Protein: Monovalent cation/H+ antiporter subunit D family protein
Organism: Candidatus Methylophosphatis roskildensis
Amino acid sequence: MSGLLDHLPALQVVLPLISAPLIVLVRRQRFAWLLTVAVSWISLAIAIALFVKVGQTGVISYAIGSWPPPWGIEYRVDALNAYVLVLVSLVAAVVAPYARISIAAELPREQEYLLFAMFCLCLTGLLGITITGDVFNVFVFLEISSLSTYVMIALGQRRKALVAAYQYLVMGTIGATFYVIGIGLLYLMTGTLNIADLAERLRDVKEIRPLLAAYAFITVGIGLKLALFPLHQWLPNAYTFAPSMVTAFLSATATKVSVYVLLRFYFTVFGASILFEGLPTADVLLALSVAGMVTASLVAVFQDDLKRMFAYSSVSQIAYITLGISLANEAGLTASIVHLLNHGITKGAIFLLIGGIALRCGVVSFDRLRGIGQRMPLTSFGLVISGLSLIGIPGTAGFVTKWYLVVAAIDRGYWWLVAVIVGSSLIAVAYVWRFVEVAYLSEPDERSVKRGEAPASMLGFAWVLVIGSLYFGFDTSFSVGGAREAAALLLGGAR
């Protein structure tokens, strides 16, 4: 047993990886679903075990093929990526059992196994990006997750899903190209691809221009992947037209993993002293974050489709994460990292609940949702609670994030930024209120609901995340505790 535990970092990636081709070989919907659920739950168990082990013993270094780093490929787990591993696997463990009925309603039966296979590949990519200690392997896993994501989006019911997938493919390919050019420049300067070794060798680099070029390419490449405003154009269509479970999974995990990569490069590889003291990184990131927080929220207010409205909300919420990074202090980084979890579970809950509405109503446009609060009370109430978390109402997970952002802004002396954070939250009130008004204050539309609430297997797992958005508003020992430890790790490595 102890030998098996030693290989947990490899199993975290290998299990979902081997399940994907197995699903394609068997081509049975029920087998595909059961295997996906089993792999997702085992991945969650492994992630929790790694998180606990890191807390007890410190950084875990796992050499692939017994080749020691930096010559061999290393899987490296510390406080930051252990935290992200738990988020990704937790969302997957909730979405996988939810998916059976949702996929059966949205896809032809002969395509169902394919979506589960792509889901496992996407999970492989996201976990691999998070756990690897090699910058080129980040690119490999980034492509695994991206290629599978393009397929999952293209499997959406409407023809616009193909356009959305193609849009994402083009922008994602550009982002990946920029990223690989950046790491190519770093390799030319240092002769290594190992993240820890790269950080050490960059200290001795005297020529700053290639380093600045690498920094610029990597920032733009990852910015495209995480939908940093104004590089977010792919996201609204991708989230709107993808199958419901795909939207829920991607919104809760994919952009969060990209943020993790940005954090890793900024604070571990390049070093905060170079980027935030010697360069205008903080000012540029702050300006883009404020623009994203306000602009995306305003656009969300005027959407006529519930799914699209919350897609634009995701762009705004990502801006809160990058805002914390731009402040580059402990409270700001804690806010950014804790919002990876808080926004992940909140937005995952929202899109899972919207999937139930789509199952019963067929569409999620506002004109067809009038009075839905009477027909689907649990679903509607769950959406309201999750919406309150997006706003940042006390007692919800979203409040914790905004509290730390305010503390970070005050610590920097940016009182004007406190006003912007509060103002953008008020805009969130406006678009959440649009759903409340339609659901509870409008006459019911007889076409809107066929048979009441979504099946228990869908509604129950959606409510797991709704409860999570409340739980982490009160008990912050894991969410804030883990985020604060990760923030201290990043700042401790600043050069």
User: Anything to note?
Assistant: DSSP finds 21 helices and two strands in the chain. The beta strands are 60-63, 74-77.
